[in-house]
Design a protein that fits this description.
Elements lengths: L1 H6 L2 H8 L4 H8 L3 H10 L16 H11 L1
Helix pairs in contact: 2-3
């Protein structure tokens, strides 16, 4: 959308993005920015718990744990 605002020509943006049709690009150009922000605000990032790798069985984890000891 920033590119479209800068250029002002949906055909150029469509070509630059490699869209098969200008209709594909128009979907993004006509999107309501406030609606997009509302959707993003309603989503939360996934909660990720901090983990501890004990007794790693795969080779990569063994190598990483060996580096910590050195």
């Amino acid at each position: 959308m920033n590119t479209y605002e800068s250029v002002g020509d949906v055909r150029k943006v469509s070509t630059w993005l490699g869209h098969a049709s200008v209709l594909s690009t128009e979907t993004y150009v006509r999107a309501n920015t406030a609606e997009k922000l509302d959707v993003l605000a309603a989503r939360r990032p996934p909660s990720i718990r901090k983990g501890v790798f004990i007794d790693a069985r795969d080779r990569l984890m063994r190598i990483l744990n060996e580096d910590k000891v050195k």
